Amino acid sequence: MTVRIDKLALIGIGLLGASIARACRRAGCAETIVCADINADHRREALTLGLVEEAHEDPAKAVAGADMVILCIPVGACADAAAAIRDAMKPGAILSDVGSVKEMIARSVAPHVRPDVHFIPAHPVAGTEQSGPSAGFAELFDNRWCIITPLENTDEAALRRLTAFWQALGSRTEIMDAKHHDLVLAITSHVPHLIAYNIVITADDLETVTEREVIKYSAGGFRDFTRIAASDPVMWRDVFLNNREAVLEMLGRFSEDLSMLQRAIRSGDGKHLYELFSRSRRIRRAIIDAGQETPAPNFGRNMPADKTTPEQGRD
Amino acid sequence: MTVRIDKLALIGIGLLGASIARACRRAGCAETIVCADINADHRREALTLGLVEEAHEDPAKAVAGADMVILCIPVGACADAAAAIRDAMKPGAILSDVGSVKEMIARSVAPHVRPDVHFIPAHPVAGTEQSGPSAGFAELFDNRWCIITPLENTDEAALRRLTAFWQALGSRTEIMDAKHHDLVLAITSHVPHLIAYNIVITADDLETVTEREVIKYSAGGFRDFTRIAASDPVMWRDVFLNNREAVLEMLGRFSEDLSMLQRAIRSGDGKHLYELFSRSRRIRRAIIDAGQETPAPNFGRNMPADKTTPEQGRD
To answer: Is the pLDDT reported for residue B211 higher than 90?
Structure first.
């Protein structure tokens, strides 16, 4: 199914909004793209980069006449944005989002959506640690999954249209229950970000090891964690505040398992450590085979060319 | 200072041993390179790849006549190897290692070293998640730090020679006290590996989220952790067993900080979360500026070329 949108409105033109705009241009699936952003620099950049035809401060002005509106702002800002655009939305238009939390989005945004607008929450599982319009790129969604979490009464045609839109942007799509989405993402994304932020905090607060030493010797593993810990702090604050229950549940499991490893180290139980450590390679191999990760060692960082080809990168 | 070695013996020809051999060939600093390995496949591979002139099963045969001997085996195997080569070592030769733990290496290996041999522990902070001779490459040590932890009575000339050797291989070098090394590496390498292994274990053991889902949606952050969790399980078992005290201390700090984040999430303290999350970008920037990490977003994975140049990669 091909998709053709006369006017696409992006509320927020950061990494995600800008990447949607670029992927949309690449696919040629929108006639006009406009955006709204509270940040004047972002609006200027979006116009300079040719991401959008118009950049508004007022989201209501951006959505006027738009067939599809996508909220590309932190989860905690979505309800207010939905309220602000409510009256300006075109009848029959689709309203969606890109938030990493879905149950709370559905609950907080839905009351602000008119009955003649199709509100369908969605979450493209893609991103980088960078922010702002210039960080966006057309390939961000290629081969990544976009999880769509329709409400009970979601219109089938609108759902098909949103699905086709994300597929046109390069994504693979999946329909999921919002509550289950939040549980899956808690372990595959939210808790990983939390522990990455946490180890950076721990390292930064030590008295026995200096910050200079942490930086200097970070190639031993620490640097890997700093990537996702360099993600946008507002976005992630909102994720944790809005997916509290699932995150705390998964964090509880993580802490239990960590206590078990701690005990094994304290008691010198090498057999147990070896068994546990041996399970991980299989999972990584499966992720690489599923096309969700590069097979190149060290993510291909500073590698000679012959080591970054798929054949050589395999263990 | 240029360094010239008539015969270099590598005990163990996995990722590290093979990379030393290749970097040595590139630098042209060893006349002859030989290895010992208990794994017959590794010995065969090392010869086929042209990494070494001779590959022995018996380490004593490999070290005969060698000016420099480097133990490139898991920390827990070093004492036995030192005992096995003791009588075969050439008088005046240098014996070193590449282990990620230094105090225990010094303590367990030293008793097996003859007084006429210069034993100097060292640790190149470099590696990938892959194993075996074919995983090695000459560039592994380029611009990475090699930490040398001399004993109290270490001969100055031998220390200069080992330092020059690592610099010839592309490394930057630092002299450090073994105990401090173990503390620094506990936070920059050992605890990161432990929590990476741990989250893979947690994700794998869930009942509410399937392994297939974890794999499918791993691009949300989880996949980053699977890289270091795919590291060699024997090597890492030995690291944790031999740097127990420092790892448990750092792990205690990590867990305290995690409890604090958990409390902030539970109580909905967005201000605190934002403040903590805001600190990380500065640290990552410093690591990139120190030349220890790529500036490309997403480690440069699946990025268009214009996003992986240093200028574009900056936030």
So the answer is: yes
